[in-house]
Specification:
- The chain is mostly helical.
- The longest helix is centred in the last third of the chain and has 15 residues, at about 130-145.
- β3 and β4 form a beta hairpin.
- α2 packs across α3 (about 100-115) and α5 packs antiparallel against α6.
- Among the domains are: about 65-120, no CATH class; about 130-155.
- A two-stranded antiparallel sheet has the order 1-2.
- It is elongated.
- The protein has six helices and four strands.
């Protein structure tokens, strides 16, 4: 495609003063590829995007996070206290679980287990076995794996 060469045109006389015209181009200035006419150039000191980049809308994670982090006032006894909605929700489920609501109890125990807060109590339960229980477990391991493995396990334990 052939480029079309045209002579530079003079800026229109009705150009608004607020826009400000660029300095006049030399007489031999040719309008073409990457050479815009004078009257369409950005003027100095003026942004090409005066309103700026538009704000984007929040995604679902941001909306939920913002909503769950809002403060609400709850009453403990006769004193009001400001807590986040998440904390208030958890306290409500704890109270319902203590009163016997199975669904709330399941939800609270599942959350506590997922956060790893039950692991300490489970380890204490396993290590608190009596000597008789240890003997039973050793006998079971010996029956399943053979005598050589269980003796090596006893030597490490003693």
């Amino acid at each position: 495609m052939a480029m079309r060469k045209t002579k530079a045109r003079a800026a229109p006389a009705n150009l608004p003063a607020s826009r400000g015209a660029a300095p006049p181009a030399p007489a031999d200035y040719e309008v073409g590829y990457r050479r815009p006419p004078d009257h369409t150039r950005f003027s100095k000191g003026r942004s090409g995007n005066p309103n700026g980049r538009p704000k984007s809308s929040a995604n679902a994670k941001t909306i939920v996070s913002r909503a769950i982090s809002e403060k609400v006032t709850i009453r403990e006894g006769d004193k009001p206290r400001a807590v986040t909605k998440l904390e208030g929700l958890l306290q409500a489920h704890l109270i319902k679980a203590i009163k016997g609501d199975a669904r709330s109890a399941s939800l609270v125990i599942g959350l506590v287990a997922k956060l790893g807060l039950l692991a300490d109590t489970e380890n204490k339960t396993i290590t608190a076995l009596s000597e008789e229980d240890h003997a039973i477990l050793d006998e079971y391991v010996r029956s399943k794996t053979g005598p050589a493995v269980s003796k090596a396990g006893n030597e490490k334990g003693n």
